[in-house]
Design brief:
The protein is an all-beta fold and 338 residues long. 3% of the residues lie in helices and 46% in strands. It is built from two helices and 24 strands. Strand 19 and strand 20 form a beta hairpin.
């Protein structure tokens, strides 16, 4: 029922009508006008706040075919950040959610033909960069050799490029770095990467995780190999090769509590490594990584520059067992505003 309050202010009577729905509206602004609610069950819930989890949302009657009207709420009717990565219209969508810690169920709203896509990858992930802004504004620092280009991309209209035309000299190191502040651990770093030249000039591209002054060489494409570095360059797998001018989808998991790193290339598991910093010292299990770095490298004094290109870069939290989301089969839907 509605609550009515009568207030006397300055000799004027004010009548306030407070409806039960006002609290829910404050907790999840912009959720009015959605005709449907669907409960989503979460198996293997995680204690990590804001854990990024991929959900395969299937089409429900009343949804917009492009899934632009989906919204997500926690148990307090507070909006959960989401981002729709891919859509098969009228069939399904791959949606990333930043789940509340220990959540076992959430709610999906849908059924609003006037709604527009409210997804925001920057609100979901620790770091996200698809370069579609056409600039490098998401990075906390980029050296003078970093740029955005449109002629070599993995998807969309733009990709990032660190071009290196000088030998690796200490005074030039900052020229060839892009840094993203994250302050997290354990983590996953994932994205699409390309190196233009290998071999003759030792061209390479590095993915590093920094913890203050300590550097972890998580993975690099170097001289046609897929390697890491812990005081010496080591191959993840003897038969894993990288070709010039070829995009590869790379994924690295840095499982600091278990002192282990894992790597994948184009979905193929390459192997694991013991986590050590560049000086060979072990990475403590409580390590918080302050930054992610992409670094271009060379070893020549003349010749055409080589390029380390990146696209669709994502940094997210890592857990050994990820939550699994699914529609609750017996949960009744409803119509009307939530």
């Amino acid at each position: 029922m509605n609550d009515t309050w009568i207030l006397l202010m300055g000799g004027v009577l004010l009548v306030l009508l407070i409806t039960p729905g006002s609290a829910a509206s404050e907790g999840a602004p912009g959720t009015g006008g959605f005709a449907g609610r669907q409960a989503i069950a979460i198996d293997h819930p995680s204690g990590t706040e804001g854990l990024e989890v991929l959900f395969n949302a299937t089409y429900l009657p009343g949804m917009r075919p492009d899934f632009a009207d989906i919204r997500f709420l926690d148990g307090n009717e507070t909006a959960i950040p989401h981002w729709t990565a891919t859509v098969m219209e009228g069939s399904h969508a791959h949606v990333w959610l930043a789940l509340p810690a220990n959540a076992t169920t959430i709610t999906m709203l849908y059924g609003n033909p006037a709604a527009r896509d409210a997804g925001d990858p920057d609100a979901v992930f620790l770091f996200y960069e698809d370069y579609e802004r056409g600039d490098l504004s998401r990075w906390s620092f980029c050296g003078s050799n970093a740029a955005v280009r449109s002629d070599v991309v993995r998807s969309g209209g733009y990709a990032g490029d660190i071009n290196v035309s000088e030998p690796d000299l200490r005074e030039l190191a900052n020229n060839r770095i892009c840094l993203a502040n994250i302050s997290a651990g354990p983590i996953i770093v994932e994205g699409d990467f390309l190196v233009s030249k290998f071999g003759k000039w030792c061209g390479s591209g590095y993915i590093q995780a920094w913890s203050g002054p300590d550097r972890l060489y998580a993975l690099h494409l170097r001289n046609g190999s897929v390697q890491y570095y812990d005081g010496a360059h080591r191959n993840f797998s003897a038969d894993a090769r990288a070709e010039e001018e070829t995009w590869y989808h790379i994924k690295v998991a840095l499982d600091t509590p278990n002192a282990t790193g894992h790597a994948w290339m184009d979905g193929r598991y390459l192997g694991k490594m013991t986590l050590r910093f560049a000086d060979g010292s072990p990475v403590p299990e409580e390590t918080i990584f302050t930054d992610i770095a992409l670094i271009g490298s060379s070893a020549w004094g003349s010749g055409d520059p080589h390029h380390f290109c990146a696209d669709n870069v994502v940094v997210r939290n890592y857990v050994p067992v990820e939550p699994v989301l699914s529609y609750e089969v017996n949960a009744p839907g409803c119509t009307g505003d939530p």
